[in-house]
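W.,

You were right to be curious about this one. When I first looked at the sequence I had no strong expectations either way, so I just let the prediction run and decided to look at it fresh. Below is the sequence, 477 residues in total, followed by the output.
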Amino acid sequence: MGREAQDSGGTLAERPPSPALFAFTKMSILSIERPNMTSPANALDLSSYWMPFTANRQFKKQPRILVAAEGMHYTREDGGRIIDSSAGLWCVNAGHARPEIADAVQRQLMTLDYSPSFQMGQPGAFDLAARLARLAPKGLDRVFFTNSGSESVDTALKIALAYWKAKGQGGRFRIIGREKGYNGVGFGGISVGGLVNNRRQFAGQLLPAVDHLPHTWDLQKNAFSRGQPEHGVEKADALEALIALHGADTIAAVIVEPVAGSAGVLPPPKGYLERLREITEKHGILLIFDEVITGFGRVGAPFAAERFGVTPDLITSAKGITNGVLPMGAVFVRREIHDALMTGPDNAMELFHGYTYSAHPVACAAALATLDIYEREGLLTRVRDIEKHFEDAVHSLRSKPHVLDIRNIGLMGAVELKPREDGVGARAYDLLVDCFNSGLLIRVAGDVIAISPPLIVTTDQIDDIIAQLGAAMDRLK
């Protein structure tokens, strides 16, 4: 799709990618009545549900309940509409309530609702793997299905270790992660990850053979960077120091997010990923990109590896693979790694790993329908058309109260606030509540506001998001 294509609706950057995108009929999807949007939260029993990554006691004193979603918006229980500036949790790339995905899910449910993936196959799994392999960077054309980003990370780590054993180098058992990295919540993921709060409660129980690169955030040199920061390529050279400490022959893999998302949108310094690739190739170490957030168009290419021109050996993914409709993840593996395990008798299992719901037929149907939308509407590259407008809009908040830094890459932006004396995250939490009440859903991590709207967002909607966020920031104490 041409980036300068025009029609009566204006340029691609000024309009939704599909003219019919929001022309939903009055009938709800699958003809199921929508829930009662006016049911008060106090009519719900909030006690049994232990909510994830939530201050449960705080939330249940002042619950924020979403009851419906469509296009770029959620609906609150009081009927108020809220623009979604975070694509759910970085996953609803094609917008909410897409009829094509719902129809595909319904058809699959009534055809083959479940089938085992151990020693059995179903067409959707093979079709989806082939479609994904064509999207991936060249050579990463073997796909292992999971159910989440966390499972994708643990799977990639296990594949890396199994690969070296198959190559007769079982002494390569060490994994290098990175400070401020978020690699899911499995024991493998929190071991290689570098977010302190994710690790603190489980100290002493993490994987032992793990070390960490330093993070790349440098406020003194790179504050208010637009795109990739100018300074920080030397941070990659810390890998050489770790190799000198442990020995290259003990290191199986290095895993990093190309853009650290949950730590607060930390784009890689210029040359940083290239330098990591150079060092890992020099020492024969596998490089894993965690693209659970950046995969499927978030930075203007199917994968960040393609945006930055650096090809790793494995890529982990999830979130946008099904538009967030059903849990699913995938690990993309370089063919040579896959083939190294395809040895021994034909009846021997090559990898003792998998999940009950690997390549679930209904998740595969949702993913295939999602890929159809991405292809038809050019969503995997559309961000390039609106990235500059998004960048300028986000950086327009620089003069607002309490702003410490602003960062952006692709359709990912972050506004970092100065912490308040009553605790890290308190100021951003107050902002989250204010925004929710006034019609804007934002994502906060500590005192960082992350902005990552669905890829269908228009320039007018970007302006609306920033205007509402700016007004709330003006009210912030």
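Here's what jumped out at me. The longest strand covers residues 403-409. And, maybe more interesting for your project: Confidence is low (pLDDT under 50) at residues 1-35.

Coffee later to discuss?

I.
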